[in-house]
């Protein structure tokens, strides 16, 4: 997929975000850290994402060499996705993102409880 990123002059953080940036790519990658998954399994694990969006994100991740797509010659066709070795190198980044997200959700939940009207 074509992106507006200049590999010669862009920053390293910008390079990382050009590959894993967006709302759904990190979620897809976290799902694939656990195991190889079929498209339908990814969709079930991400009910707030449309199938079209998941498809587009998977194509970009595959084009960047982060995931691998396996197509099996069966009827109906079976397609599975897994992280490449290069994609697995993102595990520390994704783990930190997951931990930060848990802390953020806990903080927001605590704020909501503290600001709830007394009954």
UniProtKB/TrEMBL annotation:
Residues annotated as domain HTH hxlR-type: 11-109
Domain of life according to the entry: Bacteria
SUPFAM superfamilies: Winged helix' DNA-binding domain
Cited Pfam families: HxlR (PF01638)
GO molecular function, a single term: DNA binding
Keywords tagged on the record: DNA-binding, Transcription, Transcription regulation
Name this protein carries in UniProt: Transcriptional regulator, HxlR family
């Amino acid at each position: 997929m074509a992106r507006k990123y200049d590999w010669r002059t862009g920053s390293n953080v910008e390079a990382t975000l050009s590959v894993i940036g967006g709302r759904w790519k990190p979620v897809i990658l976290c799902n694939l850290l656990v195991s190889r998954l079929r498209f339908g399994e990814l969709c079930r694990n991400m009910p707030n994402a449309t199938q079209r969006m998941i498809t587009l994100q998977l194509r970009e991740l595959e084009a960047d060499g982060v995931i691998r797509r396996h197509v099996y010659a069966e009827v109906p066709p079976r397609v599975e996705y897994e992280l490449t070795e290069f994609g697995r190198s993102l595990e520390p980044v994704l783990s930190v993102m997951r931990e930060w997200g848990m802390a953020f959700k806990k903080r927001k939940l605590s704020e909501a409880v503290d600001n709830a009207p007394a009954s």
